[in-house]
Amino acid sequence: MDETKARMGVSDGPRPRRGALEPLSDGSNGDEVSRLVLQCAVPYFLDGLQRMAHLSGGDPLSAILTLAILEANVRHVARDPVLALRHAQFDAPPPDSTRRPVSVSALAESLRIPYEAARRRVATLEAAGVCVRTGKGVYIPTAVLITEENRLALAGTFRALESLATEIQAAAPSFDLTGGAPGAPGPPPPAPDRLAARVSAEYVLRFAERLGVVAGDVGRGLILLAILRHNFEPLHRDPALARKYGGLAHLPPDDLLAPVSVLALAGELGQPFETTRRNVNRLIRGHRCARTRGGVIVPARALKTAVARGVLLAHLGDIQRTFGALARLGLTFGGNQPAPTPAD
Q1: Model pLDDT for residues 8-35, shown as the tens digit of each residue
Q2: What single-letter DSSP state applies at residue 177?
Q3: Of 56, 133, 167, 286, which is most buried, counting CB atoms within 10 Å of its CB?
Q4: Residue 104 lies in a domain
Q5: Is residue 262 domain-resident?
Q6: How many CA atoms lie within 13 A of 92 on its CB side?
Q7: Number of folded domains that form the chain
Q8: Contacts of 136 (CB under 8 A, 6+ apart)
Q9: Is residue 202 part of a domain?
Q10: Which pTM was predicted?
Q11: How many helices (H) and strands (E) does the chain have?
Q12: Taking the CA of residue 83 as centre, how many other CA atoms within 13 Å lie in the half-sphere pointing to its CB?
């Protein structure tokens, strides 16, 4: 592997599937901080989908599909250090001629969502001019990605990454944010908004797949995550409580969680009330959440399952891969402190 590939964190070997449960990069098990890190990441994930409202119409599942289309279209660019740096800045996106279309069936399979749900949403994106259909699939054209709205969204993602790194380091200072990744030997590329957004998109798609594992469907996983965001509010307000219940072995008691109504969830996710109610009921039947006075919560018994625990730990690895890749690019993002680059 040459020096440029090493700097970019590009491997010559096969990449693991996004949904795989890989160990942490630093070899630790993360038992003590898994929930702390998730508490920091949930708002980043959900707010990031909202930043894509100009493309997705405000529907979080459509936002994930849009990200998946974008990632598939330019995956070869992200994996090529020369192309990645060439198209790092906002005003230098990959041209349409280099974008590789992706089929709706591949999108549905990757995200573990029903084909028909993916087809309907992609058709809506196509009708809105967000994506273009070809004989090989769909792609998002450059014209959609050079608007002022998209510039603001990319800048917002950059700032959000800084905030996420700083918040994680403040909440869990012992957690190795980069997984021991070395820093870049040279300065970062100027205005690397698109580079940072591509790394962030990979993280969001991994996160979405994890949600699908827990909830059985990414759409229901989004609802589950929105419930958790409200449930965690008392912990966010009290750092001592957050640390006390920050690991796998110390589950927050159900009466500490802040319940949320189905109506509030529907409004927050931009979904019809009846659709949200139906999916919440499926989550309840699957023992993923429970009704209580004031709304619904994700109870301790749902967080004790092997699947939930595995996803919590795997998410820590996702965070390390994300900030490790950023460190190799020279992007240190607030609290992110990469290891020194070995001297020649």
Answers
A1: 333 333 333 443 434 444 444 467 899 9
A2: T
A3: 56
A4: yes
A5: yes
A6: 14
A7: 1
A8: 100, 101, 103
A9: yes
A10: 0.83
A11: 18, 4
A12: 14
Give the number of other Cβ atoms within 10 Å of residue 46's Cβ. 18
Give every CB contact of residue 110 below 8 A, 6+ residues apart in sequence: 18, 68, 205, 209
Cα–Cα distance for residue pair 168/291, rounded to 1 Å? 30
The secondary structure of 268-328 as a DSSP string is HHT--HHHHHHHHHHHHHTTS-EEETTEEE--HHHHSSHHHHHHHHHHHHHHHHHHHHHHH
Query: How many Å apart are CA 295 and CA 231, to the nearest integer?
Result: 10
Cα distance between residue 137 and residue 120, in whole Å? 14
Q: Which residues, 6+ apart, have CB-to-CB distance to 22 below 8 Å?
A: 16, 314, 317
**Nearest 10 degrees: Cα torsion 81, 87, 88, 93:** -150
CB of 326 closer than 8 Å to CB of 34: no
Query: Residue 65 sits in which domain range?
Result: 23-327
* pLDDT tens digits along 197-239: 888 999 999 999 999 889 988 999 999 999 999 999 999 889 8
DSSP 67: H
Task: Tell whether 17 is covered by a domain.
Answer: no
